[in-house]
Amino acid sequence: MQRKENVYGCITFSNFTMTMKEEIVPYARMPLPKKEQVALMFDRIAFRYDLMNRLLSFGIDVSWRKKIVRVLRKHHPKIILDVATGTADVALELASLHPTEIIGVDISGEMLALGREKIKAKKLESVIHLQLADSENLPYEDNKFDAVTVAFGVRNFENLDKGLSELFRVLKTGGRLVILEFSKPYIFPFKQIFHLYFTKICPALGSWITNDKMAYEYLHRSVESFPDGRNFTAILDKTGFIETQCTPLTFGISSIYTGSKS
Protein backbone atom coordinates (compact mmCIF):
# COMPACT_ATOMS: atom_id res chain seq x y z
CA MET A 1 0.00 0.00 0.00
CA GLN A 2 1.51 3.31 -1.09
CA ARG A 3 1.67 6.19 1.37
CA LYS A 4 1.45 9.81 0.23
CA GLU A 5 0.94 13.11 2.06
CA ASN A 6 -1.08 15.71 0.23
CA VAL A 7 -1.15 19.49 0.61
CA TYR A 8 -4.11 19.33 2.97
CA GLY A 9 -2.23 17.50 5.71
CA CYS A 10 -3.84 14.14 5.01
CA ILE A 11 -2.16 10.79 4.66
CA THR A 12 -3.52 9.08 1.54
CA PHE A 13 -3.29 5.38 0.80
CA SER A 14 -4.44 3.59 -2.30
CA ASN A 15 -7.85 2.70 -0.82
CA PHE A 16 -8.55 5.24 1.92
CA THR A 17 -7.71 8.69 3.27
CA MET A 18 -6.99 9.44 6.95
CA THR A 19 -6.98 13.03 8.20
CA MET A 20 -4.18 13.79 10.63
CA LYS A 21 -5.51 15.18 13.93
CA GLU A 22 -3.37 17.61 15.83
CA GLU A 23 -2.94 16.71 19.50
CA ILE A 24 -4.39 19.34 21.80
CA VAL A 25 -1.79 20.37 24.40
CA PRO A 26 -1.52 23.36 26.78
CA TYR A 27 1.79 24.66 25.45
CA ALA A 28 2.11 24.03 21.71
CA ARG A 29 5.75 25.14 21.49
CA MET A 30 6.92 23.08 24.44
CA PRO A 31 8.65 19.81 23.42
CA LEU A 32 6.98 17.68 26.10
CA PRO A 33 4.31 14.96 25.87
CA LYS A 34 0.75 16.02 26.69
CA LYS A 35 0.77 14.29 30.07
CA GLU A 36 3.83 16.20 31.24
CA GLN A 37 2.43 19.48 29.91
CA VAL A 38 -0.86 18.95 31.73
CA ALA A 39 0.95 18.21 35.00
CA LEU A 40 3.08 21.34 34.55
CA MET A 41 0.02 23.45 33.70
CA PHE A 42 -1.84 22.43 36.85
CA ASP A 43 1.25 22.92 38.99
CA ARG A 44 1.47 26.46 37.61
CA ILE A 45 -2.17 27.41 38.14
CA ALA A 46 -2.85 25.41 41.32
CA PHE A 47 -2.58 28.45 43.63
CA ARG A 48 -5.58 30.07 41.90
CA TYR A 49 -7.36 26.95 40.59
CA ASP A 50 -10.32 26.96 42.99
CA LEU A 51 -10.80 30.71 42.61
CA MET A 52 -10.81 30.44 38.82
CA ASN A 53 -13.35 27.61 38.94
CA ARG A 54 -15.75 29.70 41.02
CA LEU A 55 -15.26 32.81 38.86
CA LEU A 56 -15.48 31.16 35.46
CA SER A 57 -18.55 29.09 36.31
CA PHE A 58 -20.21 31.76 38.52
CA GLY A 59 -20.17 29.12 41.25
CA ILE A 60 -22.26 26.62 39.27
CA ASP A 61 -19.39 24.10 39.28
CA VAL A 62 -20.16 23.45 42.97
CA SER A 63 -23.66 22.21 42.12
CA TRP A 64 -22.28 20.15 39.24
CA ARG A 65 -19.98 18.28 41.62
CA LYS A 66 -22.81 17.70 44.06
CA LYS A 67 -24.71 15.94 41.28
CA ILE A 68 -21.97 13.29 41.23
CA VAL A 69 -22.80 12.55 44.85
CA ARG A 70 -26.53 12.37 44.09
CA VAL A 71 -25.91 9.85 41.31
CA LEU A 72 -23.93 7.58 43.66
CA ARG A 73 -26.03 7.97 46.81
CA LYS A 74 -28.41 5.08 46.09
CA HIS A 75 -25.50 2.75 45.34
CA HIS A 76 -23.85 3.18 48.77
CA PRO A 77 -20.23 2.79 47.56
CA LYS A 78 -17.75 1.93 50.30
CA ILE A 79 -14.44 2.30 48.46
CA ILE A 80 -14.28 5.15 45.92
CA LEU A 81 -11.56 6.28 43.53
CA ASP A 82 -11.60 9.93 42.43
CA VAL A 83 -9.39 10.32 39.36
CA ALA A 84 -7.92 13.74 38.47
CA THR A 85 -8.94 14.77 41.97
CA GLY A 86 -7.07 18.10 41.77
CA THR A 87 -7.62 20.02 45.00
CA ALA A 88 -10.01 17.28 46.21
CA ASP A 89 -13.31 19.12 45.72
CA VAL A 90 -15.12 15.98 44.54
CA ALA A 91 -13.45 13.77 47.14
CA LEU A 92 -14.67 16.10 49.88
CA GLU A 93 -18.21 16.02 48.47
CA LEU A 94 -18.10 12.22 48.31
CA ALA A 95 -17.37 12.07 52.03
CA SER A 96 -21.07 12.81 52.63
CA LEU A 97 -21.78 9.27 51.37
CA HIS A 98 -19.93 7.93 54.44
CA PRO A 99 -17.67 5.50 52.57
CA THR A 100 -14.92 3.61 54.36
CA GLU A 101 -12.25 5.06 52.04
CA ILE A 102 -11.87 7.61 49.26
CA ILE A 103 -8.65 7.62 47.24
CA GLY A 104 -7.95 10.67 45.10
CA VAL A 105 -5.24 10.56 42.43
CA ASP A 106 -3.74 13.29 40.28
CA ILE A 107 -0.57 13.96 38.28
CA SER A 108 -0.09 17.43 39.79
CA GLY A 109 1.75 17.50 43.08
CA GLU A 110 0.86 21.15 43.70
CA MET A 111 -2.86 20.45 43.32
CA LEU A 112 -2.63 17.51 45.71
CA ALA A 113 -0.81 19.63 48.29
CA LEU A 114 -3.70 22.10 48.32
CA GLY A 115 -6.16 19.22 48.48
CA ARG A 116 -4.47 17.80 51.56
CA GLU A 117 -4.79 21.16 53.31
CA LYS A 118 -8.53 21.20 52.62
CA ILE A 119 -8.93 17.60 53.82
CA LYS A 120 -7.06 18.41 57.01
CA ALA A 121 -9.24 21.46 57.61
CA LYS A 122 -12.33 19.22 57.36
CA LYS A 123 -10.71 16.58 59.62
CA LEU A 124 -11.20 13.88 57.00
CA GLU A 125 -7.63 12.52 56.83
CA SER A 126 -8.81 9.09 58.04
CA VAL A 127 -11.23 8.78 55.12
CA ILE A 128 -9.68 10.62 52.16
CA HIS A 129 -6.20 9.73 50.96
CA LEU A 130 -4.51 11.51 48.06
CA GLN A 131 -1.81 9.99 45.89
CA LEU A 132 0.33 11.20 43.00
CA ALA A 133 -0.57 8.77 40.23
CA ASP A 134 -1.19 8.53 36.50
CA SER A 135 -4.79 7.79 35.48
CA GLU A 136 -3.52 5.72 32.55
CA ASN A 137 -1.40 3.50 34.83
CA LEU A 138 -3.31 3.25 38.09
CA PRO A 139 -1.35 1.54 40.91
CA TYR A 140 -4.31 -0.57 42.09
CA GLU A 141 -5.42 -4.14 41.63
CA ASP A 142 -8.30 -5.19 39.40
CA ASN A 143 -11.85 -4.91 40.74
CA LYS A 144 -10.95 -2.78 43.78
CA PHE A 145 -13.42 0.11 43.79
CA ASP A 146 -17.20 0.28 44.21
CA ALA A 147 -17.26 3.59 42.33
CA VAL A 148 -14.90 5.65 40.19
CA THR A 149 -15.42 9.36 39.60
CA VAL A 150 -13.70 11.87 37.32
CA ALA A 151 -14.51 15.60 37.24
CA PHE A 152 -13.14 17.63 34.34
CA GLY A 153 -10.26 15.21 33.87
CA VAL A 154 -10.88 12.87 30.95
CA ARG A 155 -10.22 15.69 28.44
CA ASN A 156 -6.67 15.74 29.75
CA PHE A 157 -5.93 12.04 29.28
CA GLU A 158 -3.05 11.63 26.89
CA ASN A 159 -4.55 8.35 25.69
CA LEU A 160 -8.31 8.40 26.24
CA ASP A 161 -8.86 4.72 25.44
CA LYS A 162 -6.10 3.62 27.79
CA GLY A 163 -7.32 5.88 30.59
CA LEU A 164 -10.90 4.63 30.34
CA SER A 165 -9.67 1.04 30.20
CA GLU A 166 -7.84 1.63 33.49
CA LEU A 167 -11.00 3.00 35.09
CA PHE A 168 -12.84 -0.11 33.92
CA ARG A 169 -10.10 -2.43 35.20
CA VAL A 170 -10.07 -1.13 38.78
CA LEU A 171 -13.86 -0.92 39.07
CA LYS A 172 -15.61 -3.84 40.74
CA THR A 173 -18.23 -5.88 38.92
CA GLY A 174 -21.47 -3.97 39.46
CA GLY A 175 -19.51 -0.81 40.28
CA ARG A 176 -20.49 2.63 39.00
CA LEU A 177 -18.55 5.11 36.88
CA VAL A 178 -19.51 8.80 37.05
CA ILE A 179 -17.74 11.35 34.85
CA LEU A 180 -18.40 15.10 34.89
CA GLU A 181 -17.00 16.91 31.88
CA PHE A 182 -17.47 20.07 29.87
CA SER A 183 -19.53 19.67 26.72
CA LYS A 184 -20.60 21.90 23.87
CA PRO A 185 -24.04 23.56 23.89
CA TYR A 186 -25.73 23.48 20.50
CA ILE A 187 -28.82 25.62 21.12
CA PHE A 188 -28.93 29.32 20.17
CA PRO A 189 -27.91 31.59 21.87
CA PHE A 190 -26.01 29.45 24.41
CA LYS A 191 -23.71 28.05 21.73
CA GLN A 192 -22.63 31.55 20.67
CA ILE A 193 -22.33 32.85 24.24
CA PHE A 194 -20.32 29.79 25.26
CA HIS A 195 -17.92 30.23 22.34
CA LEU A 196 -17.35 33.93 23.06
CA TYR A 197 -16.92 33.35 26.79
CA PHE A 198 -14.46 30.48 26.43
CA THR A 199 -12.39 32.00 23.62
CA LYS A 200 -12.15 35.59 24.87
CA ILE A 201 -13.14 36.06 28.50
CA CYS A 202 -11.67 32.91 30.06
CA PRO A 203 -8.15 33.37 28.64
CA ALA A 204 -8.18 37.05 29.65
CA LEU A 205 -9.20 36.21 33.22
CA GLY A 206 -6.72 33.34 33.32
CA SER A 207 -3.91 35.63 32.22
CA TRP A 208 -4.83 38.23 34.81
CA ILE A 209 -5.39 35.92 37.80
CA THR A 210 -2.93 33.06 37.16
CA ASN A 211 -0.48 34.69 34.71
CA ASP A 212 -1.02 31.69 32.42
CA LYS A 213 -3.21 32.64 29.48
CA MET A 214 -2.30 29.51 27.54
CA ALA A 215 -3.76 27.25 30.24
CA TYR A 216 -7.18 28.80 29.67
CA GLU A 217 -6.81 28.87 25.90
CA TYR A 218 -6.15 25.13 26.22
CA LEU A 219 -9.39 24.80 28.22
CA HIS A 220 -11.44 25.93 25.23
CA ARG A 221 -9.45 23.93 22.68
CA SER A 222 -9.68 20.75 24.74
CA VAL A 223 -13.44 21.14 25.17
CA GLU A 224 -13.90 21.75 21.45
CA SER A 225 -11.96 18.62 20.52
CA PHE A 226 -13.54 16.35 23.14
CA PRO A 227 -16.00 13.73 21.79
CA ASP A 228 -18.94 14.72 23.98
CA GLY A 229 -22.51 13.46 24.21
CA ARG A 230 -23.34 10.28 22.33
CA ASN A 231 -19.83 10.17 20.89
CA PHE A 232 -18.42 9.73 24.38
CA THR A 233 -21.01 7.20 25.56
CA ALA A 234 -20.12 5.18 22.43
CA ILE A 235 -16.49 5.16 23.59
CA LEU A 236 -17.58 4.04 27.06
CA ASP A 237 -19.61 1.25 25.45
CA LYS A 238 -16.60 0.17 23.43
CA THR A 239 -14.47 0.13 26.60
CA GLY A 240 -16.88 -2.37 28.16
CA PHE A 241 -19.15 -0.23 30.30
CA ILE A 242 -22.88 -0.98 30.24
CA GLU A 243 -25.99 1.13 30.93
CA THR A 244 -24.12 4.23 29.76
CA GLN A 245 -25.98 7.53 29.84
CA CYS A 246 -25.28 11.20 29.21
CA THR A 247 -27.15 13.86 31.18
CA PRO A 248 -26.55 17.46 29.98
CA LEU A 249 -26.32 20.14 32.67
CA THR A 250 -26.89 23.91 32.49
CA PHE A 251 -27.93 24.18 28.82
CA GLY A 252 -25.30 21.61 27.82
CA ILE A 253 -22.26 23.47 29.15
CA SER A 254 -21.30 20.32 31.01
CA SER A 255 -22.55 16.73 31.13
CA ILE A 256 -22.59 13.82 33.53
CA TYR A 257 -21.78 10.43 32.05
CA THR A 258 -22.59 7.25 33.93
CA GLY A 259 -21.97 3.58 33.37
CA SER A 260 -21.58 0.25 35.12
CA LYS A 261 -19.26 -2.73 34.93
CA SER A 262 -20.96 -6.06 34.29
3D structure, described in words:
With 262 residues, this protein is α/β, with parallel strands linked by helices. The protein has a single domain, classed as Rossmann fold. The chain is 43% helix and 22% strand. The strands form two sheets. It has a seven-stranded mixed sheet with strand order 6-5-4-7-8-10-9, sandwiched between helices. Strands 1-2-3 form a three-stranded antiparallel sheet, with no helix packed on it. Helix 3 links the parallel strand 4 and strand 5. Helix 1 packs across helix 4, helix 1 crosses helix 6 and helix 6 runs antiparallel to helix 7. The longest helix is centred in the N-terminal third of the chain and has 24 residues. The protein is globular and about 45 Å long. The N terminus is likely disordered.
Question: Domains counted in the coordinates: how many?
Answer: 1
Structural class, by secondary structure, is alpha/beta
Order of helices and strands: EEEHHEHEHEEHEHHHEE
Number of helices: 8
- CATH architecture title: 3-Layer(aba) Sandwich
CATH fold topology: Rossmann fold
Give the SSE map.
Blueprint (H helix, E strand, L loop, with lengths): L3 E2 L4 E3 L4 E3 L14 H24 L2 H14 L5 E5 L5 H6 L6 E6 L2 H13 L6 E5 L12 E7 L8 H11 E12 L7 H21 L2 H13 L4 H10 L2 E8 L4 E7 L2
Parallel strand pairs: 4-5, 4-7, 5-6, 7-8
Antiparallel strand pairs: 1-2, 2-3, 8-10, 9-10
Helix pairs in contact: 1-4, 1-6, 6-7
Can you give keywords for this protein?
8 helices, 43% helix, seven-stranded mixed β-sheet, three-stranded antiparallel β-sheet, disordered N terminus, 10 strands, globular, 262 residues, alpha/beta, Rossmann fold, single chain
